[in-house]
Amino acid sequence: MPLQERIVQAAIEEIQTRGLKFTMADLSRRAGVSTKTLYGHFPSKEALIGHLIEQEIQDVRDSMETIVNRQDLDVTEKLRRLLTYVPSGFGGTDLRLWYELKRYYPAQWALVDACIQEEWDQVRAVLEEGMGKGVFRRVNTDILIQMYVGAWEQLINRQWLTRNNMTLDQALDAVIDILLGGVVRTQKRQEESV
């Protein structure tokens, strides 16, 4: 394994163990390199965290592109998977890391926030495809995305999830069910339930 990959892997292990409170000395011990060597690859902890986030954002883009290109999924399932996709790398569903990142590393959080606010091309494409096929009714995609982003931002509030005894995955599933199904029953559904 190349040295930079070994350092990155060790950083991920440190984050999983200590959150973002690890020191570069902790990381150098775990990676089995001197701090001088570590700083030769990453000039600061902030640069390392930024690298990890950029890597995760690229993984997210690749995963979302894979979902969109799957021929075995219909547009509804593609949309559901895109909207419920939670990165498994940096942070994943460990909300503590997102709080630490937002609070202590604002420049690195800005990378995440920019991704959350701007990376919606695949979702738009699937929505347009579904609307074009008549599977989805015509909606304002920008409003739908803003609703989802707003819900996501509220869901990362750890206290709310804890109070409601829900995981982030469960909460996202509920949001998607409401966004895709709405709350008003269609006439056909109402008649079937009678």
From TrEMBL:
SUPFAM superfamilies: Homeodomain-like, Tetracyclin repressor-like, C-terminal domain. Keywords: DNA-binding, Repressor, Transcription, Transcription regulation. InterPro entries: Homeodomain-like_sf, HTH-type_TetR-like_transc_reg, HTH_TetR, Tet_transcr_reg_TetR-rel_C_sf. It comes from the Bacteria. GO terms for molecular function: DNA-binding transcription factor activity; transcription cis-regulatory region binding. Residues 1-60 form the HTH tetR-type domain. Residues 23-42 bind DNA. PANTHER family: HTH-TYPE TRANSCRIPTIONAL REGULATOR RUTR, HTH-TYPE TRANSCRIPTIONAL REPRESSOR KSTR2. This is TetR/AcrR family transcriptional regulator. It comes from Brevibacillus aydinogluensis. The lineage of its organism: Bacteria, Bacillati, Bacillota, Bacilli, Bacillales.
